[in-house]
Specification:
With 210 residues, this protein is of the alpha+beta class. The chain has a domain of 135 residues: Immunoglobulins (Immunoglobulin-like). It has four helices and seven strands. The strands form two sheets. Strands 4-3-6-7 form a four-stranded antiparallel beta sheet, with no helix packed on it. A hairpin with a 5-residue loop joins β3 and β4. α1 packs antiparallel against α4.
Length: 210
């Protein structure tokens, strides 16, 4: 009987350790979502399941791997980054302890009047402050005509921002659902193995008793 108990412990202990390791890995699966709002990138860093990651460093890089901007998430895992270049922005979220995530903002979703980033352009924010905020002003006549004409661009941008926000919410809800399903599958599989192990040891014990 002692040998059976030791055998069960040898089989069960690794399964428990494996279950704890899987749960810990799922808990540290960092995700990041982001969208463009005007000349800012807003987003959230969270773990699969919906929990916010506070204090994570979020850095934006251009296609040439130069740093464009950086910030930290607040208590709700939210962050904002300024947009100064019309190029792809690769967002890197670093939550510490080797846990992080990436997200790509395509240049096509950024305002078209931003200066382009190329090999000859310094991506340093200090250099950006020396750049003109807007292009040369058009003639007053054209400006008056533009101000009097009804503008639908603002309404379209607001609709796009709302749609992107809804898509981000759906993405987070889908991640939470996948997290629950994955965890239940892992726990269910371990329970199934433990059940078969118990039946096998019970059968062996019955044979030895006879």
């Amino acid at each position: 009987m002692v040998s059976c108990a030791i055998g069960r412990a040898v089989v069960v202990a690794p399964l428990i350790v494996a279950a704890l390791a899987v749960c810990e890995a799922l808990a540290h699966d960092i995700r990041i979502s982001a969208r463009v709002e005007g000349r800012q990138i807003v987003g959230k860093v969270y773990v699969r399941g919906g929990g916010a990651v506070a204090g994570a460093k979020v850095t934006a890089f251009d296609p040439h791997k130069r740093e464009l901007a950086s910030t930290q998430t607040d208590q709700q895992g939210l962050f904002r980054l300024p947009v100064r270049r019309h190029c792809d922005h690769r967002l890197i979220a670093d939550a510490g302890d080797g846990h992080g995530a990436e997200y790509l903002i395509k240049a096509s979703s950024l305002p078209e009047d931003l200066p382009a980033a190329d090999d000859a352009t310094d991506a340093n924010p200090a250099h950006d402050q020396q750049l003109p905020a807007v292009e040369d002003a058009p003639s007053s006549r054209a400006g008056n005509a533009a101000s009097q004409a009804p503008s639908t661009a603002t309404e379209s941008e607001a609709s796009v921002r709302q749609l992107r926000a809804e898509i981000d919410d759906l993405r987070q809800q889908l991640d939470q659902y996948r997290q629950r399903v994955r965890l239940l599958d892992v726990l269910g599989g371990i329970g199934y193995i433990l059940g078969l192990t118990g039946i096998a040891y019970y059968w062996l014990a019955m044979r030895r008793s006879h």
